[in-house]
Specification:
By secondary structure, this protein is an alpha/beta fold. It has helices at residues 12-22, 28-38, 52-61, 121-125, 133-141, 164-175, 195-204, 218-224, 227-230, 233-240, 265-274, 300-312, 333-338; strands at residues 71-74, 80-85, 91-99, 102-106, 110-112, 127-130, 151-154, 187-191, 208-212, 251-257, 281-286, 316-319. The protein contains 13 helices and twelve strands.
């Protein structure tokens, strides 16, 4: 049986084509978009400014896309980890992270991931599916804390640039005036460095970029991030030098500090050379242990020394606060548990 398509996630051009097919005036596309993304309903029968026959035809043709999370884990620090089930039966996670006046949601773009990073629980699952825009957006609109959100980061399960069409569709809904109307400066997309899609993303959007770096040396990065074999981090850095990050748009580099593996003075020098000419920030991240992992995070004093050494070389560097460790907030752990520990 063919799976019904969903109305949620469509853009005004697609809605206009749909209206033409149904014999509705073109302006009805904007009305439908408003119901979907501003008024927050995907039920055609509630779209009362459309003709009754059009509502009935839409209801018969399209399946609901939005669903509540199946499970939530709540940390002592206020972080909440939500587990969603996709229409195809897979699991994805999102993490709600309150911090004073800020409230950030970390969303997933895929169920599983094919990048295979050695320090990541999601990478152990392999890629199960790339999420359609509706199921990425569902993590936002079905969140109980939706109205409190100030920021959105695509740093959950999956590699966003490995799902580029649906990522760009999602970002369009989030940042367009016909959609959620968010400023692009409230959104950050993370990537391990999918070079073929990087320029497309940078040219098509104005949201912030975060690059998963974790080691400046090619051979060592390949050991923990197989993506380095296909798309070297040096090539990513070369592309970024061609873009202006001195105004509202920012680029940052994520760096999980692994004791004895990427935290030496040699790595500091390598980072300085690699990032020369790029206006950026480095975010140092403590490693959240995953079962069976051989990696460890250095102690707080070593983290501070590493930060200060990078800062002394003129690279703005911060240590990201660890959140939700008591609920295994590192991405992929909750969905791995739901999959039966595979």
């Amino acid at each position: 049986m063919t799976e019904k398509e969903t109305l949620y996630g469509k853009n005004p051009e697609e809605l206009a084509a749909l209206c033409a097919e149904l014999g509705l005036p073109r302006f009805a596309a904007r009305q439908i978009a408003r119901w979907l993304y501003v008024r927050g309903t995907e039920d055609p029968m509630r779209m009362t400014d459309l003709a009754a026959t059009a509502r009935e035809r839409l209801a018969a043709r399209f399946a609901p896309a939005l669903s509540a999370p199946e499970r939530v884990s709540i940390s002592a620090d206020g972080t909440k980890k939500y587990l969603f089930r996709t229409r195809r039966g897979h699991y994805v996670e999102s993490a709600y992270i309150p911090d004073g006046e800020r409230a950030t949601l970390c969303v997933s773009s895929q169920a599983g991931c094919r990048m295979g990073c050695r320090f990541c629980a999601t990478g152990r699952q392999g890629l199960q599916e790339s999420l359609p825009a509706a199921e990425i957006l569902n993590q936002i609109v079905s969140l109980p804390e939706r109205d409190r959100l100030t920021n959105l980061v695509f740093m959950g399960m999956g590699e966003p640039l490995d799902n580029p069409d649906q990522l760009l569709r999602t970002l369009s809904v989030i940042t367009s005036e016909w959609g959620f109307g968010w400023s692009p400066t409230r959104v950050t997309v993370s990537t391990a460095g999918v070079v073929p899609q990087l320029r497309r993303f940078l040219d098509a959007t104005k949201v912030h970029l975060a690059v998963s770096l974790h080691n400046p040396f090619r051979e060592e990065r390949m050991e923990i991030m197989p993506v380095e074999r296909a798309w070297p981090i040096a090539e990513v850095a070369a592309i970024l030098r061609g873009y202006d990050f001195t105004h509202q748009r920012r680029v940052s580099f994520e760096y999980i500090v692994l004791e004895g593996l990427n935290d030496s003075p040699r790595h500091i020098r390598g980072l300085s050379r690699l990032l020369d000419g790029i206006k950026c920030r480095i975010n140092l991240i403590r490693f959240h242990r995953i079962p069976g992992s051989p990696y460890f995070s250095p102690d707080d004093e070593a983290m501070r020394r590493f930060r200060d050494a990078l800062t002394a070389r003129g690279i703005q560097t911060t240590i990201r606060a660890s959140r939700g460790e008591d609920i295994q907030a590192a991405c992929g752990l909750l969905s791995t548990e739901a999959l039966g520990g595979r």
